[in-house]
Amino acid sequence: MLPPLRTVRAAFLGGFMLIFTVWLTSTYYVTGRLAEAQARSASIYAQFLRDQELLFTISRQVLLGSVYVRDALIESAEQSAAVAHYQIRNLQAQVERELEHYETIDSSVDAAAWRRLEKELRDYWETAARLTAPESASRTWKAASSLLHTQVIQQREVITQLSDEIRQMMARDYLQEEKQLNDVHVQLRRRLWETTAVAVILGFGVAFLATRYAARLEAQIREDHAEVARNRGDLQRLSERLVRVQEDERRTVARELHDEIGQALTAVKVELAVALRSVGADRRAVAALAEARMVTEHALSNVRDLSQLLRPAMLDDFGLPDTLKWYLRKFSDRTGIRTELVDDRLSERLPTDVEVSAYRAIQEGLTNVSRHAHATSCRVFVQRLPSSLIVTVEDDGRGFRAGRDSTGDQGAGLGLVGIRERAVNLGGTFRIESGDKGTRLTIEFPLTAGAQA
Ligand SMILES: Nc1ncnc2c1ncn2[C@@H]1O[C@H](COP(=O)(O)OP(=O)(O)OP(=O)(O)O)[C@@H](O)[C@H]1O
Ligand SMILES: [Mg+2]
Q: Which ligand 1 atom is the nearest neighbour of the CA of 439?
């Protein structure tokens, strides 16, 4: 038993929504984290570059400072000392500005190392300034050289060493940060793979369920088709059987009417003729017997007509064209509607089933003309083709909306349905064309080996 379609549809929809939600949220999360990591990586790199630049500037200014001091000491002139002093103070101001600016930036390097560097720098600039003070011009070369080596160069070495340490620290921090970022990347990649795997598994699950459901549905549809085909076959057989039974019954009743009642009435008629001859001059008796003979004759004629209508013996004896001629004449007499029969190449007898079905179809068609069409004339056309018999009944009546269904299913009536059933039972077709200018029924019976009953 399959679950209801609505439940299945809701389940599939839910499944797909779940897959999409998993996918979307994970993609959103991963892209967000990636963007964050990228921004962080860019800012760390910029910081690293700034740190390097600062250290480089410090080293360069310090070196330049020591050059100015040396020049001033070598020249030992008051004026050059003043210029060097001024330049040194300038360099100091530049470095301090850089450092001040640097402090506002969040540096990753150990603050203690920076403080030590700042202190060493301050001492260095003080020493350099002292050595280029106006009185320094009076020093001897020897004293100046010793001062340069013991103070300036020594302090410069310390600063260079400290800068190197800080640079190493920065490089270490930078590498550490890079490693962390790399870890984040690895984590995100794993996360992406995990959610992709979950979504794929879910997708496979939904696809598997859908395929299984489709297979079950297909099996059920096949079963239903088989059952419908079985039922249709049963119906077809039943309808064939009904038509045959009806024909047999009509033939029996027609024969009974003709043979039993017809014979009895004929006997009564003969007896009445004998009685009439032997009754003599009794006028009342003569009149009564004559009346009785007339009634009997009338009844006999009615019985014959009825018997013919039920199942014309002439259909079996003389075939379709003669029976149709007789039937159309009777129809015109009865209804006042002009009839015309056109038969083409019907010299040979046809299979009984085909003859009977064609006759019944024409009978029903003409009955409908008289009952519904308000027609003044109608035409019956019977044509034999190499492999089929075409029967057409057309009238000039008011027509009807046959377009509703050209297969003969026109509502409550059974006449057209019966025609279609007979045609289908013999493997033929039935078509109705109807409009303002009348109605045409066309029935085609195949004359293949199977139809030769
Ligand atoms: N030649 C025709 N002209 C106009 N209307 C027709 C004609 N033939 C059939 N019809 C319409 O089609 C309907 C169905 O016809 P059908 O023979 O199936 O049923 P019926 O004649 O009403 O009843 P039943 O034949 O079962 O006694 C009719 O009621 C009538 O309205
Ligand atoms: Mg009818």
A: 1
